[in-house]
Each structure stands twice: as C-alpha cells, then as structure tokens.
C-alpha cells in the first residue's frame, strides 16, 4: 500500500460524534486504518466541546498525539470543540495542521487534499453520505437531527450546533435500509433532543412517525431511542413505544433535577409533577428500562433541593443514573447567575449522588437474576479465556453493562452478533452471568 496512506482517527464525546466520525471514515476509505498513531500519516481527532472535563480531554488528546506523531504527518482537529472555540484555537494551537468544525465531515477528503482549514456555516446532516460503521457487526447508531431548540440554562450546545434541524424521514429510512442490507439489525436512534424530531417541520410527534416507518423495514429486529426531553415527550409517544414489537421499552430521559424551583431555574420548561407522570408511565410498561441524568451543583442549588433529588434518585427505581457536576460554560444563562456553588460542595454532592447511582445499578442488575432474557453475543470477553461477552438486547451498547456467558454449556458454538434467549444466573460485582438455553437456538 501507499507509504503515505495510514489514518489514525479518534472519536471523543457522544455517539452522535461517532456517527460523524464514521462519515469521515466513509470518505477516507482509500486510507489504511491504524491503531498506532506514531505510524499514521493523517491523524484526525473528532473533539467534544460540551463541558470542562470533555474539553480538557479533547485538548490533551490532540496535544499528546502531536507529541508522538511522525514528521510530515497531518494533524486534524474536527468537531465541536474546534467549532465552539475556532478563533482562539486556530491562533493558539500551531500544533494542528487543519481545523474544521461540525459542517464539513463529508468534505474531509477535500480538506486533506487542500491542507486547509475550513468552517462551513451549516451543521452537517447526513443525507446519503456513506458511513463506515465501527464497533459492531450488527448494531449502528442513526442520527435523527442536529442542534436543539431548548434553552436549558447550563447547556452551550445550541450556541455552536444551532437550532433543531431534523433529517427527512426518507433519508433516515434509506440509511437504515442500506445498513440492513449489510447485515445490521439493531439500531439506536440518537440526537441532542430526540423527542423534538420533526418539530422544525411543524410535525408534533415525529418519533411516532419514525417508529411506524422503521417498523416497515424488513430485517430491523431491534431498536431503541436515546435522549428524550421531558417537555417534548408525549404520553402518546410512550404508548407507541410500548405497543411496538421492534422498539424496546427503553427510555433514556435526562431529567437533570426533580426539585420544581431548580427545574425552573434550569429553564427545563417542565415541572416535577409532569416529569413524574412520564417517568411513572415508562416504569409501568412491561420489561421497561429507565435511564436518566442529574446535574449537581447548578447555581442556586440549596442543600434542601439536593436532598430532594437524592431522595428521589434513591427511591424511584431507575435502572441507570448518570451524574454530572455542573460545569460553568460561557454563552449559557447559568454562567451569569449569582450564587455559584463551590467546587468542594459540587464534588461532595457528585460523590453522594454517584454512590446512589451505583446502588441503583446494582439493584437493577440484581433484579435480572433468575430471569430469561434475550441477549446478544458480542465476542470473547477480555477478562476470561472461556467466557463470551454479551449484553441484554434491550440495553444500549457499551453503556448499560456486560454479561458473561459460558459457551461450553451448549452443543454448538454461539455466533457473535446473534441474539439468544438466556437465563441470567448471577451477579458478580457489576457483571451478570448467563447461560444460553440449549434447545432454544434461534435466529
């Protein structure tokens, strides 16, 4: 292969970023991918610009890759961080050869050829761009939209991703059909605010239309929607998910807080009572899985407000909880608020709620023991020679956990990327073990 033809690519941040990275890979298929950054001719980092910790990780990644790269290689900084701080970074990071933001993922080949930085004004939205799906032979993320019309006090995303911009339903269906033809059968639909899908086209419940459309595609066996926003999630939508044979009762709704005053301060557009109504309905659906996120230490969060959130988090029965410490972000409403919480108090609250979150995960996993569940085999486990790594089919890949399966209890070898009914046998640490039901071999 060509001497100057090795590509090392790093995708930081969320799964929406991953989709954009996969679009870049689709454009750069003439390159040979390498895990070894020191031999790469082109290094691309798709950065995250969301909160302090993520911004720091993005910068550190770029700088450490620069340190180790070979002469004459090209270092590209793409994505949210470079979009958000384009003026500062282009001045302050001479280490980087090419800067680009969130508008040119599908033109990355041109940028490399021109060796020039470029920032388009439009956010890139996949429409027929070929992707190289990574990380799985059967699961893919599908991006529904870009940007966001919410004005949450703590979130800077609209400042650099702009307003909600939904993809056409046909474009999404076409992409899913193309992936099904390549053997993919499990899909996670993602965006900043999935429950607002198509609202920018004056369609009220776009996700219900999406569900109906995706169910028509033969070969889609499993699907889930990630990131519902409370004020734009209707009961009707939850009912439609509940009725669907393809879409799991999987609900990822980051509610951020439960105290009424705090929700108002956070500009969530939705109070405690309505939030509870949605959560209780999700929880009541059979085999439902409910994940949320909370922010600790937002300006004006009193001890009482924090205690109320802890109490709620501990007792509602969430399957998973993400905890974020408030990060002070310029361009957001919270940035200008008085009454900031000290780093010490934030860290202490994050620790307390984090422990509650761990306990919730444990309890949720413990409840699975003894049940028969559809699991999908991902491959060999990294830990044990004889064990396979799997997950419950309803779970989102990577984030909801891992199940160890001993394949020596079945007559024929279990296939990677296939779903099987299995009995969950025990919980070891945070990992479930399971036995595949022998006779029940299924497609």
Briefly characterize the structure:
With 443 residues, this protein is α/β, with parallel strands linked by helices. Helices cover 33% and strands 21% of the residues. Strands 6-9-10-11-12-13 form a six-stranded parallel beta sheet. It has a five-stranded parallel beta sheet with strand order 2-1-3-4-5, sandwiched between helices. The protein has a five-stranded mixed beta barrel with strand order 14-15-16-18-17.
Determine the mean pLDDT: 93
By DSSP (H or I, 4+ residues per run), the number of helices equals: 13
Task: Please tell me what the overall shape is.
Answer: globular
Gyration radius (Cα, Å) is 22 Å
Question: What are the segments in which pLDDT stays under 50 over at least 5 consecutive residues?
Answer: none
Helical content class: 25-40%
Major β-sheet, in short? 6 strands, parallel
Structural class: alpha/beta
Number of strands: 18
- Spatial gap, N to C terminus: 39 Å
Q: How much strand content do the residues show?
A: 15-25%
How would you write the strand order of the largest sheet? 6-9-10-11-12-13
């Amino acid at each position: 292969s060509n001497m100057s033809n090795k590509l090392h690519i790093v995708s930081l941040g969320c799964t929406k970023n991953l989709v954009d990275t996969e679009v870049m890979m689709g454009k750069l298929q003439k390159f040979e991918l390498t895990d070894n950054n020191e031999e790469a001719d082109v290094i691309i980092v798709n950065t995250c610009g969301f909160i302090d910790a993520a911004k720091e990780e993005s910068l550190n990644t770029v700088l450490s890759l620069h340190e180790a790269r070979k002469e004459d290689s090209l270092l590209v900084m793409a994505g949210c961080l470079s979009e958000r701080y384009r003026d500062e970074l282009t001045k302050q990071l001479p280490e980087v050869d090419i800067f680009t933001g969130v508008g040119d993922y599908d033109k990355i080949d041109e940028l490399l050829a021109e060796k020039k930085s470029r920032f388009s004004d439009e956010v890139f939205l996949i429409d027929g761009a070929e992707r190289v799906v990574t990380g799985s032979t059967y699961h893919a993320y599908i991006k529904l939209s870009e940007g966001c019309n919410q004005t949450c006090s703590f979130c800077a995303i609209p400042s650099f991703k702009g307003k909600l911009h939904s993809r056409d339903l046909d474009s999404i269906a076409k992409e899913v059909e193309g992936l099904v033809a390549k053997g993919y059968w499990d899909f996670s639909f993602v965006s900043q605010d999935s429950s607002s899908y198509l609202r920018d086209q004056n369609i009220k419940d776009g996700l219900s239309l999406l569900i109906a459309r995706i169910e028509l595609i033969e070969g889609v066996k499993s699907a889930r929607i990630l990131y519902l926003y409370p004020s734009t999630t209707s009961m009707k939508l939850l009912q439609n998910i509940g009725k669907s044979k393809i879409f799991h009762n999987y609900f990822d709704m980051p509610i951020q807080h439960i105290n009424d005053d705090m929700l108002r301060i956070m500009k969530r557009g939705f109070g405690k009572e309505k939030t509870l109504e949605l959560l209780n309905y999700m929880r009541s659906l059979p085999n439902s899985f409910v994940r949320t996120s909370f922010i600790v230490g937002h300006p004006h969060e009193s001890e009482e407000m924090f205690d109320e959130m802890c109490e709620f988090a501990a007792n509602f029965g969430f399957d998973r909880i993400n905890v974020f410490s408030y990060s002070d972000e310029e361009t957001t409403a919270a940035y200008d608020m008085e009454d900031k919480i000290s780093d010490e108090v934030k860290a202490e609250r994050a620790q307390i709620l984090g422990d509650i979150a761990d306990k919730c995960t444990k309890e949720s996993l413990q409840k699975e023991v003894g049940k028969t569940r559809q699991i999908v085999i991902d491959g060999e486990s990294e830990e044990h020679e004889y064990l396979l790594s799997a997950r419950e089919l309803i779970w989102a890949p990577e984030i909801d956990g891992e199940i160890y399966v001993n394949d020596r209890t079945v007559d024929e070898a279990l296939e990677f990327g296939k779903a099987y009914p299995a009995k969950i046998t025990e919980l070891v640490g945070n990992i479930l073990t399971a036995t595949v039901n022998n006779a029940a071999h299924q497609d």
